[in-house]
Task: inverse folding
């Protein structure tokens, strides 16, 4: 069982940066693949970025996130991060972290059984 709590969202101007954190409970955090999704109003939940379990050596990004977002994990702190730079108004959404005990890293929400409550990111013009 894993419980996830996101933080770090807020209001930022276009071009600014935010770092989201997702703190996880449980002693086996390192085994879990961790992912960030986001959901804007009237949109479906979409993939942002993912990091594999254990060493986190495999990283995955949506095309719009490449070169702007960086995912990382600190297994000692049971935390996964999403550093977001050069933010755009279209990045406005609720950002969710999710976890799956899986070697394969999936990019669709249906494959993740553990979810946080989400953190709002709003990027103004």
Result:
């Amino acid at each position: 069982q894993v419980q996830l709590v996101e933080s770090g969202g807020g209001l930022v101007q276009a071009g600014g940066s935010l770092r989201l954190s997702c703190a996880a409970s449980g002693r086996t955090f390192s085994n879990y693949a961790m992912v960030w999704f986001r959901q804007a109003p009237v949109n479906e939940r979409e993939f942002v970025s993912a990091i594999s379990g254990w060493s986190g050596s495999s990283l995955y990004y949506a095309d719009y996130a490449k070169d702007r977002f960086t995912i990382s994990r600190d297994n000692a702190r049971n935390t996964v991060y999403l550093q977001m730079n050069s933010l755009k108004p279209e990045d406005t959404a609720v950002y969710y972290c999710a976890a799956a005990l899986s070697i394969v890293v999936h990019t669709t929400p249906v494959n993740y059984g553990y979810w946080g409550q989400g953190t709002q990111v709003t990027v103004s013009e």
Remarks:
- The chain has a mean pLDDT of 94.
- Residues 2 and 110 are 16 Å apart (CA to CA).
